[in-house]
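Section 3.1: Structural characterization of target chains.
Under the original work plan, the team committed to producing a structural model for every single-chain target entering the pipeline before any wet-lab resources were allocated. The record below documents one such target. The sequence was received from the expression subgroup and is listed exactly as submitted; it comprises 573 residues.
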Amino acid sequence: MPQSPTIIEKPQRWDQPLDPQLNDDIASRLIQLEPFALMDESAFSKNVPLRGILKNDCRLIEFNKGDIIVREGDYGSSAFLIVEGEALVSLKKIPQSVLGRDPVEPKSFMETIAQLWSNSKHSEARNFETGGAPKDDAIGERVDDGQTRIFLHDIPRVIPAGQSVKLHKGEIFGEISALTRTPRSATVVANTTTYILEIRWQGFRELLKRNDAMRLHIESQYRENSLRSHLREIELLKDLPQDSIDTISALTVFESYGSFEWNQNFQSTKQKDIAARVLSEPVIAQQGEYVDGLILIRNGFARLSRSRGDGQQTIAYLGKGQAFGLRELNHNWQTSQQRPWALSLRAVGYVDILKIPTSAVEQFVLPNVNSALLPPLFPEADMISNRRKVSRAQSLDQNLMEFLVGRRYINGSQAMVIDLDRCTRCDDCVRACASTHDNNPRFVRHGEKHDHWMIANACMHCMDPVCMIGCPTGAIGRSEETGIVSINDGTCVGCSTCANSCPYDNIRMVEINNAKGLPILAADHETPILKATKCDLCADQASGPACQNACPHDALVRIDLSTPDDMISVANR
């Protein structure tokens, strides 16, 4: 008898609400609050109604006085609205230890030598018998409704008077970080018992799209507080008069392309044929079309490609802070021609851009900028071919370029690249890693390969560290000084959020043991305590990454793949 196919309901966006406890009754009460009460429900689509956003894309959270709501330096995907209570935004830098992260102190020379014979004999051994707790006496740890939180024992001690701004009922915070996946710029702490409505970015974007008042408010806040300084950081614009910067700021357009949660379908996407994968990427600028502005990459990565036969050939990739279109704009301005885009620009994963309109570039930028910063004009012969001349000595092998971009290794600022032609599989790198981490190696010497190159399963300390989103205690954090992403063993609660989010399988959950090699168990169910473990780039070692230093054949290097330069240097050794 032939078997019948299984028939199920097609999965929908809201099959899994952010908060299953947020019911219709709560949603009806929320809709009476500002800013929702000011919104026209008919402006929302039937598939994504306002009440649906409140019910499915929001979560109502109670914070006690002293609870840290968001931490400076955290990456998040939610905005927050104060429903009741009061919060403090710290204007001063709070010590990392108070935020649930221990600062890394480099070992002395003698400590470095001593670790060769003082390491534990057992794997994943820890020097505490419990799951650990914050060590700073200014803070504590509590669990509410299954959520582990860090809280301040004494707010005035940590945030003295005059070092904070109060947020009250109806105020929104965290929206810029949520929409651009950038680190939180300040720490926010509950100053009373405070009810916060967390709005995940999908729903928040719908609110912005359907309600001009909220969209204009958020954009005006960004233009007022951040955009001018952002434009000043760009080499091309930093010396322009202030009135020009003000005008450019007012004319700049914000756009986003691709999927914010690109990591969720990353594994399936990278298995696609290269040509199909490129064509599926959202087009930011299309080769041959009108040049309508200067494109600045605010976050994420974009692929530069040109038409070749029926497909696209990758030329290069652009990351945060880089610009696209300046050569065409300069050429057209100086020659009075209308040359179209010479290449296409596509979003790899998720990209936020700023676009300065052509008219603004021609009026305020090109006449006032140092000519040394302007690219050369296109030669006349190149007008027909629409091709950029790329020196072979200064470019990556085409297939290697496709490999790095297609698997998004370009996200790595400290990727472990192994030249398999030089590697003898001696495992000195793994032993060195274990020696510097108390007999607990922090990477695995295998990974995806292209030709004689392997990208090992070691944390790459990504430019877009999606692993940092959702950590309940802030145990995983990034150093502002070094860019190293590290895990605080004491505040890690073993929830696996970071490991599940890492697209590259570079974070492992391990069962930990005591100094005798016996497992450490949870008191309630006597189940093994888990901790997240990953490469910390040997931050406490004065000599840097032990894996690279130990390689006898110079086969292993830690390099920045967010631009091609390091890989070009290694490939041309």
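Confidence is low (pLDDT under 50) at residues 6-11, 129-133, 381-393.
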